[in-house]
Amino acid sequence: MLEPEAARRQMEEKLRTVDYEFQTDWGRAWAKGEAEGEAKGEAKALLRVLAARDIKVDETDRDRILTCTDTATLDAWLDRAIVATTVEEIFG
Q: Which is nearest to 91 in space by CA: 65, 52, 59, 58?
């Protein structure tokens, strides 16, 4: 029988070699929900920046922002919103 410290090291080594990332339906659903929540938060932040900078956003552009689920795209738009003067410059 292994001593507790040796057993712990053995278990830690075994866990390092296994990829447990979202192997269940629940885990995948959780990850999807987390990603959707992150995108929704970024979209709201983008709209706040635009409002604070007095950049007018029509309904079509607002929908485009709020329905975007790609956080990389939203990040790029948010970065552009810092210096842009129009919505067209943000969508670039």
A: 65
Q: Which two tokens stand for residue 43?
A: 């979209």
What residues make up the domain containing 57?
35-92
Q: Higher confidence at residue 55 or residue 30?
A: 55
* Segment 58-82, tens digit of pLDDT: 999 999 999 999 999 999 999 999 9
- Does the residue 62 lie in any domain? yes
CB 50, CB 87: distance < 8 Å: yes
| pLDDT exceeds cutoff 80 at 26 | no
Asked if the structure places residue 20 within a domain, the reply is: no
Token pair in block for residue 41: 């938060």
**Exposure string for 14-36, b = 16+ CB within 10 A, e = fewer:** eeeeeeeeeeeeeeeeeeeeeee
Global pTM? 0.66
Alpha helices in 1-92 (DSSP H): 4-16, 25-52, 59-67, 71-81, 87-91
